[in-house]
Amino acid sequence: MLQVLRRSVRFSNEARPDGQPFSRSLHDPDREAGADRQTVDADRSMTRELDMAKTWFITGASRGFGREWSIGALERGDQVAATARDLSTLDDLVERFGDSLLPIRLDVTDRSADFAAVAKAHDRFGRLDVVVNNAGYGQFGLVEELSENEARAQFETNFFGSLWVTQAALPILRAQGGGHLLQVSSIGGISAFADVGMYNASKWALEGLSQALAQEVGGFGIKVTLIEPGGYSTDWGGASGRHATPLADYKELHESAARRRASLGASPGDPTATTEAILRIVDAEDPPLRIFLGEGPMAIAAADYESRLATWREWEHVSVAAHAKRS
Known about the structure:
The protein is of the alpha/beta class. It has helices at 2-8, 29-33, 37-52, 64-75, 91-97, 111-125, 148-176, 197-217, 251-264, 275-283, 297-314, 316-321; strands at 55-58, 79-84, 101-105, 130-133, 139-140, 179-184, 222-229, 242-243, 290-293. The strands form 2 sheets. It has a 7-stranded parallel β-sheet with strand order 3-2-1-4-6-7-9, sandwiched between helices. It has a two-stranded parallel sheet with strand order 5-8.
């Protein structure tokens, strides 16, 4: 209902949702100067509220960031299609928000199901303003320890799941003249750490895909933002995480990696605190292609990129010599 109101409201003699008539015009002198000024202000406020409402499609909404962002959107009056593999995890939100929430059972690794889920959300709400590719998990294990199935499964969820949802949404966003894709990456999408190399690889792939995508769809009014969180108290490294069978020869490295994770997780961010940032991003006229969430990522990124630049410069004479102009 909110979607219909948002798209059809005009200042006319139509009744407002509270039963009162809309004023004929914001520029009607009698209205502006007379005793009905409060009615005009109410009309303006209500129309602005309706115009600002958004429709979201969020994967991985059962917990963590996906759940918090779903709640944040719903609490301000937006509509949300929230996907989860287990719909019972969304029962409390359905009871709380009613028809503003559309729960959809989805395993993002199923391409056909991704297209069907996006179509279902569009059919229900009439448009999609924000598409959030959040579903994912952390695969732990040193490169040598990973099985083929573990490596492929990590990409199927973290990379291909996002790709399929993106492909399903793009025709809708192009047809309506715009929209916003939020691709949930990580500080591990621009840096890399021992024991999570396959996770890093899946997020680096998403980063490259999304940067190219932004160049391809900007002309259609479609915006792309890579969300790059640092350490948060989500289930990423808990029950959702998967672990390869460790090799004894890497015992010391595993212990070192565990100490590093413990250090980084000593003061994790609160996922609920990210909601306001996400709302500001989707409401921005010119949102960023990339944005960190949390206190830690900037220092990691700065050190990493400074090291890369220093190495590239140190070896630049070798790089240039390799150009070898043809005579």
